[in-house]
Amino acid sequence: MGAQRVAEVDVRKQALDEPGVLQVQLPSPVSLQVSLECGQVFRWKRCDFQGCPDIGIAYKGVTGGTGLIMGQSQPLSDLVWVRYDPGAVSPQDVRDTVLRYLSAEDDIPSIESRLAASGEVMREAVTFGRGLRIIKQDPWEALASYVLSINNSITNISRIIGYLSERLGEPCGLGEKSFPGPERIAGADLTCLRECKCGFRAQNLLDAARKVSGGEIDLDAIPTMTVDEARRELMRIRGVGPKVADCVLLFGYHKLEVFPVDVWVARAVSRYFMGGRPVSPEEARAEGLKRFGQLAGYAQEYLFYYLRSQEL
To answer: Which of 94, 59, 54, 60 lies closest to 74, judged by CA?
Structure first.
């Protein structure tokens, strides 16, 4: 047995003695640090895995309407430890939620191998971000989050989502509150949303909530559409352009064939693939789709995380 497995067994003996703690095994390794800090999700904060100091990498947040702590004893491992409120949710529901959230069905070794084989830049980006998984977010929360991302920083998006959840969400375990559904936000007014620090984005968020809760935008129909159809449908919401729509399709619907382009991704495409010349978002998206095809979404996230980490 390797050293990592010995460490995991020691942690297991300690952790599984407690109620509300379980171990989830994935088919291939994941890095929670990379996956939760690469800019695709906004609810997770570093914390201690209470009572288990050997689980040294841990994050507290909400998924599937449930407050959770997810942790690892190694930076890259196929084992994820989860703490939850046993009075609020069953162990099987927690396991299913975590496996879905971390896209357990994605063949990560194959994805990493194929992208790394496409060139030196992607080989470096994949090595730097090894264990990255595209998170499967709730479509409504993904839509709301990326509406709030317009001209905004990751830190500020996280704050706004925290304010909205605290003000309009429901208790969901471990002291957390759920992200409010579209009906709840649609019933709020602009003053409330601005008090949650949404700023000018409050009108966009309210428009999204009203169109979704009123049935004008059917989020359940998006998976049946082509990417172009789905993008056009989402762009009927005030303030939603191609980049926000593509983020919703990638992170809310796991459409891995899209290539969302923000300033970081456009810079990466320009620097690494276009000889440094300035490129428009449309040019960058076309280049990403041409190069990476059905893995464009993963390529985009590796590039985003790689370049942003080098420059910040």
So the answer is: 54
